[in-house]
Amino acid sequence: MFTFPDETAAALRARFAQEGYVRLPGLVGPDLLARLGAEAGRLAAIGQRRDFAMACTDDSPRHMTALGGHLIAEHSPLITGLYTDPTLMSFLQNLTAGPVIAPPHVLERHVLNILHRPGDTHGAHTDDYPYALVLFIEAPEDPAAGGLLEYAPHTGDLGALERHGVRRAHHRRGDAYVLRADTTAHRVTALTKTGRRRTVLNFAYTTPEERTTVTPSAALLYGGPHQER
User: Fold this and answer.
1) Residue 89, phi then psi, degrees to nearest 5
2) CB of 200 closer than 8 Å to CB of 134
3) What is the pTM of this model?
4) Does domain 19-222 have CATH number 2.60.120.620?
5) Count of CB atoms within 10 A of residue 180's CB?
6) Which residues pair with 67 in a beta bridge?
7) Residues with Cβ < 8 Å from 198, sequence gap 6 or more?
8) InterPro entries recorded for this chain (predicted)?
9) What does each of the 229 residues of the chain score in pLDDT, given as a tens digit?
């Protein structure tokens, strides 16, 4: 189902602590990737197109089709099962050097983000919860087609993404990455070519000790309530 890196847990932990980011090439195996592709195609029909500037993140743009965790919890046992997969949870705990748990708000636990038009982008932001695991169901093969992750480690200052030294990462279909998402300013660059798609599942995790102040950003993007479940 999942293919984890050959690196030792200690090496991965050290890289994650230093960079706030770890790329996981080919994490999603072919059979699971095919199932997720079919599931994403089915769920896209109930997704919502979003085209607006997010006021609480310095008016950064959102141009995408999105589906929130409340709808995924209702319509996709496959994704909700993957979210709590024991081998995946064990890997994340080794990587982050501590326990990880589901956030109390179902809206942000597992979301589907689809960039599918030229100019589609997920603008600058930080997440409400500390850890994001992003699984690539579709991605442009050519980095020049856009859909790249840009991130600035160890800062929530969105302006850092405009300064020299910002990191940029290209991912392929079946890849994944883990991001320290609450303290790493990040964004997705705009698609530049017709016919290219970037479809990702974003799994959010927190810790038992974390006391998060939830921002309105997720409700604005995904259109659902911040209810606990």
Assistant:
1) -65, -40
2) yes
3) 0.96
4) yes
5) 22
6) 112
7) 113, 114, 115, 116, 120, 136, 138, 139, 140, 146, 147, 188, 191
8) BesD/HalB-like
9) 899 999 999 999 999 999 999 999 999 999 999 999 999 999 999 999 999 999 999 999 999 999 999 999 999 999 999 999 999 999 999 999 999 999 999 999 999 999 999 999 999 999 999 999 999 999 999 999 999 999 999 999 999 999 988 999 999 999 999 999 999 999 999 999 999 999 999 999 999 998 777 889 999 999 865 444 4
| Token pair 């409400």: residue | 128
Amino acid identity for residue 114 in this structure: I
Q: In the structure, how many helices (H) and strands (E) does the chain have?
A: 6, 11
Q: Which helix (H) or strand (E) holds 204?
A: strand 198-205
In DSSP notation, 74-123 reads HH-HHHHHHHT-HHHHHHHHHHHTS--B--SBGGGTEEEEEE-STT-EEE
Domain residues of the chain, as ranges? 19-222
- Name residue 84's amino acid: T
